[in-house]
């Protein structure tokens, strides 16, 4: 039986030990010409595409089942909790965001599909980080009798994959929050948009 993940210590990270991020001191002048300083975190892994990461909004279509999406549950040390997220990952040095989306979806969920749209390059927390991403929409067509595919996780990845009918997604995320899980903002905004379109328009 796998043990529950837990934080064993939290220490300041020396710059020469940081593999994935670095801190930046940004000097700038505001609209009045006043000099100011801003602190930011920056990824050190940005490749040729100029895009750090992708998240994948999947729509699964099946002959008999309602349209569904795929979400993942994954422990995240910065928030010391299991997070509810879209499948997602970093874009490799020579990849395009579209290629990364197909690869990451297969690795984390086992599913393969067709990218139907890519968002503009977007920023989740521009007041704190230079990190950016693109959101891919991927359509997966299933046939009657198709079996659930195997994940292709890397060593050290512990990701639970869940297929959720789109009609149930909004309520399911509220339930997860009440259970103490942490819902990723991108997934919540997507689910909230679906809920808004259904109930308010």
What's the short story on this structure?
The chain has 201 residues and is α+β, with helices and mostly antiparallel strands. It is 20% helix and 33% strand. Residues 49-190 form the Nudix hydrolase domain.
Task: Provide structural commentary.
GO terms for molecular function: ADP-ribose diphosphatase activity. Keywords: Hydrolase. This is Nudix hydrolase domain-containing protein. The structure is a single chain. The protein has 201 residues and is α+β, with helices and mostly antiparallel strands. The chain has a single domain, classed as Alpha-Beta Complex (Nucleoside Triphosphate Pyrophosphohydrolase). The chain has three helices and ten strands. It has helices at residues 97-109, 166-178, 185-199, and strands at 21-29, 35-43, 53-61, 68-76, 81-85, 88-90, 114-118, 133-141, 160-165, 182-183. The chain has a four-stranded mixed beta sheet, with helices on both faces.
Estimated radius of gyration:
19 Å
What kind of sheet is the major sheet?
4 strands, mixed
Give the N-to-C terminal Cα separation: 47 Å
Put simply, the count of helices is: 3
Say which CATH homologous superfamily is assigned: Nucleoside Triphosphate Pyrophosphohydrolase
- CATH fold category name: Nucleoside Triphosphate Pyrophosphohydrolase
Helix/strand class: alpha+beta
Shape: globular
CATH hierarchy class name:
Alpha Beta
Low-confidence stretches are: none
List the helices and strands in order: EEEEEEHEEEHEH
Proportion of residues in β-strands:
25-35%
The CATH architecture is Alpha-Beta Complex
The total number of structural domains is 1
Mean pLDDT: 96
Give the beta-strand count.
10
Question: What spatial order of strands do you see in the largest sheet?
Answer: 6-3-8-7
How much helix, percentage-wise, in residues? 10-25%
């Amino acid at each position: 039986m796998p043990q529950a993940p837990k934080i064993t210590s939290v220490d300041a990270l020396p710059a020469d030990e940081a593999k994935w991020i670095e801190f930046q001191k940004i000097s700038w002048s505001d609209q009045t010409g006043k000099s100011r300083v801003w602190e930011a975190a920056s990824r050190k892994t940005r490749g040729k595409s100029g895009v750090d990461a992708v998240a994948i909004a999947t729509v699964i279509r099946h002959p008999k089942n309602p349209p569904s999406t795929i979400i993942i549950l994954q422990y995240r040390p910065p928030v010391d909790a299991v997070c509810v997220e879209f499948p997602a990952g970093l874009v490799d040095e020579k990849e395009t965001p579209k290629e990364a989306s197909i690869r990451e979806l297969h690795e984390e969920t086992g599913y393969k599909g067709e990218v139907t749209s890519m968002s503009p390059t977007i920023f989740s927390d521009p007041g704190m980080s230079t990190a950016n991403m693109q959101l891919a929409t991927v359509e997966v067509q299933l046939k009657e009798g198709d079996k659930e595919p195997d994940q292709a996780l890397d060593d050290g990845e512990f990701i639970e994959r869940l297929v959720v009918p789109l009609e149930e997604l909004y309520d399911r995320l509220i339930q997860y929050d009440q259970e103490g899980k942490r819902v990723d903002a991108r997934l919540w905004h997507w689910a909230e948009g679906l809920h808004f379109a259904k109930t308010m328009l």
